[in-house]
Amino acid sequence: MKSLNKSRAAFNRAQKSIPGGVNSPVRAYGSVGGEPPFINRGEGAYIYDIDGNEYIDYVLSWGPMILGHAHPAVVEAVKEAADRGTSFGAPTEAEIELAELVKERMPHIDMLRLVSSGTEAVMTAARLARGYTGRDMIVKFDGCYHGHSDGFLVEAGSGLATGGLPGSKGIPKEITSHTLSLQYNDLDGVEDTFKKSGDKIAAVIVEPIAANMGVVLPQMGFLEGLRDLTVKHGALLVYDEVITGFRVSRGGAAELTGITPDLVTLGKIIGGGMPIGAVGGRKDIMEKLAPVGDVYQAGTLSGNPISVAAGIATLKELDNPEIYENLRSATDKLSEELSGGFNKGSISVRINSAPGLLTIFFTAEPVNDFSSSKAADASSFRQYFHAMLEKGIYLPPSPFEAWFLSIQHTEEVIKMTTDAHYKAINEIDIDT
Ligand SMILES: Cc1ncc(COP(=O)(O)O)c(C=O)c1O
């Protein structure tokens, strides 16, 4: 058994000063039980806890660390930027460079505004869509997560799904009454909604590859349908690419799906592990933002020099087609091995994956939406999670989160993971 004595003590201590002992809910291991390892450092595909245990990391800070931990180019860029000062509240040239790097990779983005988190990016996108269209209603999808701003905590995935909560206390009904949450992949449902309320809908926001109810892929025609309906009814289509941006391909999910959204929200990878977010899109929409337009948005630390430096270094390192090819084949290889392992026994699982991310669902049924994701067996996941942790594989502590891969998840790392997996499934008592 791994010793987690120091982590246990730290968790007890943390709970006296920090609600639940953590600064973001899923970190508390509420749905899998036990104490979270407290992390001391990371290197490449590995993290090390304060008890000295080593883990292969599939959380990767929930997506940003696509280059692996402490990548020398990112660390160097951060140090160099910090030496020149950590924040100015005034424009810097590096912000232009990051904006240009993003635009070059995502040609549907004419302009972008940097903010400090994915939550802020989505909040700004919604305000912008409302300001641009003069309408109030936002359509989202059950199981998608768009950060924790008031209007989006309706049937949301990620931590809310992990906690089994349909929404959050503390949000006035008047605010969520402007959010309509529909079933992912149900284009008929979207069409009906547009028929009834098309002239009230400012935007449809979607994770083009959903990753917060576990990975759920858009079915053929779903995203095309959203594009057609939004154009027809004068609403905006917003791709939330906070996870998929620069992960599933060099140009993100828009490049992969071939559908051009009006607005895109970004985060995670564009900050290389430092806090960041961005909203980008068509010039005529983006110029509604203050100071050019009358939609207000601001931020003391927006475009922070350290985050921007880490983001630039990350995007530059990713600028090699082989990287995405390797990420895709590593994900395919891992998915194949994981499902192969399960098929050898009486266990039924479904593995959904996109390049750089995947989820194991303990169910025999296809997972295409939030209901089918919630129908998977949580207790099997819990056992599997702990068996893998014990073998040094650090998975997201929730059946509703994606496993993330980095460029440091080499063949050797994948092999060690699959070896651990075969051992783990022999130890657990699964009755799906
Ligand atoms: C798709 C998506 N949008 C928005 C967010 C919110 O980003 P942040 O946690 O940086 O506020 C997340 C966070 O995981 C996300 O997955």
Explain what you see.
- With about 425 residues, this protein is an alpha/beta fold.
- It folds into two domains: about 5-65 and about 320-425, Alpha-Beta Complex (Aspartate Aminotransferase, domain 1), CATH 3.90.1150.10; about 70-315, Aspartate Aminotransferase, domain 2.
- Strand 1 (about 40-45) and strand 2 (about 45-50) form a beta hairpin.
- It is globular.
- Helix 2 (about 70-85) packs antiparallel against helix 11, helix 7 (about 185-195) packs parallel to helix 8 and helix 12 (about 320-345) runs parallel beside helix 15 (about 410-425).
- The strands form three sheets. A seven-stranded mixed beta sheet has the order 4-10-9-8-7-5-6, sandwiched between helices. Strands 1-2-3-13 form a four-stranded mixed beta sheet. Strands 11-12-14 form a three-stranded antiparallel beta sheet, with helices on one face.
- The protein has 15 helices and 14 strands.
- The structure holds pyridoxal-5'-phosphate.
- The site of pyridoxal-5'-phosphate has 16 residues, from helix 4.
Structural features:
2 domains; single chain; four-stranded mixed β-sheet; 432 residues; Aspartate Aminotransferase, domain 1; binds pyridoxal-5'-phosphate; 38% helix; alpha/beta; seven-stranded mixed β-sheet
